[in-house]
Amino acid sequence: MSTATSRRRLSAAARRESVLAAAIPEFAAAGYERTRVSDIAAKVGVTEPVVFQNFGTKADLFLAVLERVADEVIKSLALLGAQSATVAELLSRLLAPKYQDGLHSPGGLGMIFVEAANNADPRVREAAHLAHTRTVQAVAELLRRGQVEGSIRNDVDAVTLGWLLLSQIHARQFRRAQSRTSPAVEDAMLKALLAILEPS
């Protein structure tokens, strides 16, 4: 059976899924503006019009990518939470500068969120807000567990603490982009943030 025949037999859902799977690493590595739909099409082995038939526009494709990445992040948080002895221990790993830098370097899934937040299209920015909100809700679920187990302070709402953590993640990337950071300072800031989360 030829490759061309196999491709023709893909269902519409499978074709759409293959385009989406190819688009995620492309957008994560090159960013929204520099990613070419033709490159995504070539990775799937289809023509550019086929991508547009499945997603409409490049922005629509990116919106689908953002939603999928948010889904993956939320599932990963739940899985990591289930594998961690305490929520405080999990947060110390998730918020570590090295881990965050990997997520927010070209190729990391965090780049999708950054690209969405900075996009000129109001629809994409609104989708970025929704993706961030969903992520914060997932973090808040972990924090609530930490509040129950006693490793996270319970005198502040978990969603508020979730936004605090997200703000710190974005602040770290801002400092990094401005070359206004050092390992010692970042380690001290992480310790301070974790101390804020501890029960009084």
Can you walk through the features of this model?
The chain is built from 11 helices and no strands. Helix content is 78%, strand content 0%. By secondary structure, it is mainly alpha-helical. The protein is elongated, with a radius of gyration of 19 Å. The model has no long low-confidence stretch (mean pLDDT 91). It has helices at 3-8, 12-34, 37-44, 48-55, 58-83, 87-94, 97-103, 110-117, 122-149, 158-177, 183-197. It has a domain at 59-197: Tetracycline Repressor, domain 2 (Orthogonal Bundle).
Q: Assign the CATH architecture of one domain.
A: Orthogonal Bundle
Weakly predicted, low-confidence segments: none
The number of helical runs is 11
Order of helices and strands: HHHHHHHHHHH
CATH superfamily (homologous) name of one domain: Tetracycline Repressor, domain 2
- At CATH level 3, the topology of one domain is Tetracycline Repressor, domain 2
Biggest sheet layout: none
User: In angstroms, what separates the terminal alpha carbons?
Assistant: 66 Å
Give the topology, please:
Elements: H1 3-8, H2 12-34, H3 37-44, H4 48-55, H5 58-83, H6 87-94, H7 97-103, H8 110-117, H9 122-149, H10 158-177, H11 183-197
Helix pairs in contact: 2-3, 2-5, 2-8, 5-9, 8-9, 9-10
